[in-house]
Amino acid sequence: MFLMSADYDAIAWVYRRLWGPFSVQRFMPVLERWLLPRLPQGAAILDLGCGTGNLARALWARGYRVMGLDISARMLREARAVAPEVLFVQGDMCSFRFPGAFQAAIALFATINHIVNPTDLPRVLRNVKESLITGGWFLLDFNTPAGLRARWQGVEAVVEDDLVVISRGQYDEHAKIATSTITAFRPQAGLWVRSNTTIALRGYDEDAMRTALRAAGFEVMAMHRQTGKAGQGRVLVLARRPGAVEADTTTADARP
What domain count does the chain have? Predict the structure, then answer.
């Protein structure tokens, strides 16, 4: 069984406040360029690792039928408050089954990097493929080892009147795993209450991800290395469950 590489229950409130809105800001332009023009209005989309539901809500507001899947009960509780119109399901990426239920699936904001045991990756990808209709689309992003090495080391802090979050990161070169220890504080009943968790992400090489997608039965339509500081070492992939003839454009800088 897939095991979460973090106890997101402990920091679900932080995710909803900081990172959920950031995910919309960062990835809705990507979705609008890469995926949504390929879908009919009202298409069914699976949001894998949906977190606090911010992206799911943005897609629902554009007229899509969305189901969010996440393993964290508290993240889903926040998601239902953010997007009460959306269906959210608690589940494991290694064991979910929705045969042929979706025209598209997304796994964004490093969802795939949470698969810290690489032997679990093929099972997750097969589950995604089987959940898509023939010709269905899969959009994902992932961090490479170089990206985690560059961006997941050192200390970062967010300080606001009602929120303090400190993240301390380090990267294990041998294991290709980055960890971030997060300490968060918020005021409750006149006191500052502390929450702690540790997140672990595995870096995946581009060639290994392309090979894994193809082995799971996907056609890899495009891979694109992201740019800018936040995009350093991150790769976007557009894949498809076979069902229509379309050119394979898997060069590193390909754009659909």
Answer: 2
